[in-house]
Input
Amino acid sequence: MTDQIQELAQLVTESERTVVFTGAGVSTESGIPDFRSPGGIWSRYDPEDFTIQRFVSSPAARRAFWQMSSEGGLLADAEPNSAHYAIAELHRSGKLDCVITQNIDNLHQKAGVPDDRVFELHGNMQRVVCLGCRSRFPMPEMVQKFQVGLDIPDCPGCRGILKPDAVLFGEALPVVTLREATRRAQRCDLCIVIGSALVVYPAAYVPAYAREAGARLAIVNLTPTPLDHEAVVCIQGKAGEVMPRVLERVK
Ligand code: NAD
Output
């Protein structure tokens, strides 16, 4: 693995515009399970409870969501791990164009990547959005309202339904974010995939677009992905162990 880490460090050193594409695997070492690995989220929750149709039509599903959030939710005070910090270090070194993430956990920003450099294809669980007037509010504020009143919080402005500002099943991805992420992927010279199975579409098209447009592709993931054969470097290992070693060599 040391040779591959050296190779990836070399690619980063040669790059002028790196895009990092992350999935649930970059956050498992922060204690947030991914979806598909054994013990992952789908072995504990019913995906049907996370459809937009169910959320909008069923007060019981909404109550279950707020109850889950008030008990810490899926993200439960998670902190960035050494992979997030290594990516933030990449930003500080001036190499990083942006992070394009499928994650909704806010950990790239918490590690120090500025908001305007993080493109969240599936939204962010730290916010809620009103389905009526589209106003956004901090999630913790609304969770506190639920905890005090034990009633489902609604929009303080228009009394509309509040939904987590993360993309639920059955919802479209945010168009502007997806368009800008695609544009940046198509003009980067290096795309590093970290912790994604690359099977959730349309998000998984992003590294494919980068590759098609001529960028070099590198993949750091515990298990094989459908794009491994396109990658110059493919490292099967833990993001939190691999990425700091890469950054150490880039310095
Ligand atoms: P996935 O569950 O399909 O795949 C995650 C991949 O990460 C797997 O291939 C796994 O082998 C790999 N992995 C796990 N731990 C790793 C580690 N320490 N280092 C390197 N690789 C590791 O997740 P996905 O491809 O990201 O897609 C599922 C969807 O689930 C995403 O769209 C995302 O929005 C959502 N999700 C987000 C979070 C989060 O915000 N933290 C958590 C779970 C799911």
Q: What stands out?
A: The first strand starts at residue 18 and ends at 22. The chain has two domains: 1-31+80-122+173-251, 33-74+126-166. The mean pLDDT is 91. The beta strands are 18-22, 96-101, 118-120, 123-130, 136-138, 162-166, 190-194, 216-220, 233-235.
